[in-house]
Write a structure and sequence with these properties.
With 154 residues, the chain is of the alpha/beta class. It contains five helices and four strands, in the order αβαβαββαα. It has two domains: 93 residues, no CATH class; 50 residues, no CATH class. The termini are far apart.
Length: 154
């Protein structure tokens, strides 16, 4: 990705890079597993250095071991943002669906849930679907009785 990052940053487009596990390429990595173990650590370090040199303003380190995240954070001149990469990074990020507990089937080790909204969301969506099927929604209070005036958004 270094060539693409270089191309974009040369044209004034800021780029936050992403190394380690990249979810869009999870199948090429053999599944959703830790990256940078053993000899693979050097590949992740090279990638982090390459995106830094190419002009990225920061880099997300995803699902890499803590010693590797610590080493990369010390080696490169741009901030590292961890997602499953330990507190050794300069900052942290979690996917909002994980923070809110929207899914129950899949829970990576690095996720900390701050709520369990998945079951509430399922219940709400089910109630909405039932109301639509039973023609209880939309009801009269949700319908405009006459043509609204231009600019009327209520």
């Amino acid at each position: 990705m270094a060539a693409t990052i270089r191309f974009l940053t040369a044209r004034g487009v800021p780029v936050m890079a992403h190394v380690g596990l990249t979810p869009q390429a999870v199948n090429t990595f053999g599944g959703y597993r830790v990256q940078g173990l053993g000899d693979d650590a050097e590949r992740i370090r090279r990638d982090a250095g390459a995106v830094t040199e190419a002009g990225a303003f920061s880099v997300v380190l995803e699902k890499v071991p803590e010693p590797l995240a610590r080493a990369i954070t010390a080696e490169i001149a741009i901030p590292t943002i961890g997602i499953g990469a330990s507190p050794a990074c300069d900052g942290q990020i979690l996917v909002v669906d994980d923070v809110l507990g929207m899914f129950t089937e899949f829970r990576p080790k690095f996720v900390k849930r701050y709520a369990e909204l998945g079951s509430e969301a399922e219940a709400a969506i089910g109630a909405y679907a039932d109301d639509v099927r039973e023609r209880r929604f939309p009801a009269a209070e949700h319908v405009y009785a006459t043509a609204s005036k231009a600019g009327d958004v209520a």
